[in-house]
Design brief:
Blueprint: E1 2-9, H1 10-22, E2 28-33, E3 40-48, H2 53-63, E4 67-71, E5 89-93, E6 96-102
Antiparallel strand pairs: 1-3, 1-6, 2-3, 4-5
Bound molecules: ligand 2BA.
InterPro entries: CdAMP_rec, N-reg_PII-like_a/b, N-reg_PII/ATP_PRibTrfase_C
Length: 109
């Protein structure tokens, strides 16, 4: 078994959950915050059999798109005067950041 952890943009999270439910894949959605932009994103925990990993990755790819986002001036460059950026910076936020971890043991009670 594998645990797929996928960080996706909030705008894509409903579409992805619907696609997972439709394919009968169980998942947990967590409200999360990006460390860099400090804005909300969604983290999915998806526990699946090894042979389901590729189809889940396909669903994530199909339902999550990358977008450009503006970072407000000085919102995350360290917060001191030396690193102050007086203009908004455009950042490309990926469709999904995905981690795939082995599961040692799975139990449900
Ligand atoms: P954030 O940390 O808010 O990052 C949003 C986007 O800002 C990133 O998109 C990247 O394009 C840019 N960015 C992040 N750190 C940067 C830096 N130090 N310098 C310049 N630009 C930077 P993505 O890479 O697609 O990441 C989207 C979200 O996925 C991240 O939101 C974070 O919540 C998560 N993430 C990405 N890489 C991760 C990692 N290695 N571990 C844990 N979470 C990660």
């Amino acid at each position: 078994m594998k645990m797929i952890i996928a960080v996706v943009q909030d705008k894509d999270s409903n579409r992805l959950s619907e696609a997972l439910v439709k394919e009968n894949i169980r998942a947990t959605k967590l409200a999360s915050t990006g460390g860099f932009l400090k804005s909300g994103n969604t983290t999915f925990l998806i526990g699946v059999r090894d042979d389901q990993v590729d189809s889940v990755l396909k669903l994530v790819k199909e339902n999550c798109q990358s977008r450009k986002q503006m970072m407000a001036p000085m919102s995350s460059m360290g917060g001191n005067a030396d690193s102050y950026v007086p203009y908004p910076v455009e950042v490309e936020v990926g469709g999904a950041t995905v981690f795939i971890l082995p599961i040692d043991r799975f139990e449900q009670f």
